[in-house]
Amino acid sequence: MGKTAFLFPGQGSQAVGMGKAAFDEEARVREVFAQADEILGFSLSRLCFEGPEEELRLTANAQPAILTVSVALSRLVEDEGLKPDYVAGHSLGEYSALAAVGALTFEDAVRTVRQRGLFMEEAVPAGKGSMSAVIGLDREAVDRVCSEVSEQVGVVAPANYNCPGQLVISGEKEAVDAAGEKALEAGARRVIPLSVSGPFHSSLMQPAADRMEEVLARLEIRDARVPVVANVSARPRTGADDIRRSLVEQVVSPVLWEDSVRRMAEEGVDTFVEIGPGNVLTGLVRKIQRGVTAVSIQDGESLRKALEKLS
């Protein structure tokens, strides 16, 4: 019998209207949104359901919004008796994963990712940093380009190893632009600038990592009921101290997503269930690991379809 992993999306998956169908159908979902609204002191539910999009996209709003939708949906999945053998989340999604397996309370998770979003927004002056997706170039070539440009121009480094031929680079705007040009010369098919508010998962985020370290030191983190595959190492973790350390390092380290999915497959996972807005991770899993089942759950209807497919 194969194993199951639950996956939780990161920033960029937000969309106005997310969670609304599940909210309308399910009291469990309404409870989670009511909790989030109360903890944050503003109507996150209204922002998720009605926007405006440019406000929802702000890092300090997008992070608690995606986490709230993801955790609410994970409660529905739990109610159906579907249980994971492993969990993982992409960047911010790691907090959703930790909340889903009892390492963090939902209250602490939503409060913490709101702070994380603010710290990340404030770490680098607007316009100084940027991120770009590099399509169609292998990771060794991207690593090489980044290290050459870092020596000549400024800070740029891989930020997300998403799947074969799809990486994201991050750093000082001038260096990211130069690395993008060099990547095209080296054979990349496309380089796509991302609309983000900062150079996430690069060394420029150190001020945010330092502030997160203080927040996480005071936070009650429990041992996880299920192994959490950490972004920074692509290794399963259950111990509270390991989890705390990973969350601090995560702010300035690349997301090893491709490695994480491969590691879970090596551990016997053949079913990947994405829980939260969008289906980006489902698409990545299919590109990383052939022959596995990958489904995404965004509302009650997709939950029912997923259960049919998995039964």
UniProtKB/TrEMBL annotation:
GO function term, MF aspect, one: [acyl-carrier-protein] S-malonyltransferase activity
One Pfam assignment: Acyl_transf_1
The reaction(s) this protein catalyses: holo-[ACP] + malonyl-CoA = malonyl-[ACP] + CoA
Protein EC: 2.3.1.39
Single GO biological process annotation from the record: fatty acid biosynthetic process
GO CC entries: cytosol
Domain Malonyl-CoA:ACP transacylase (MAT): 7-300
SMART domains: PKS_AT
Source organism, top-level taxon: Bacteria
Active site: S91, H201
Keywords: Acyltransferase, Transferase
Family from the record: Belongs to the fabD family.
NCBIfam families: fabD (TIGR00128)
UniProt name for this protein: Malonyl CoA-acyl carrier protein transacylase
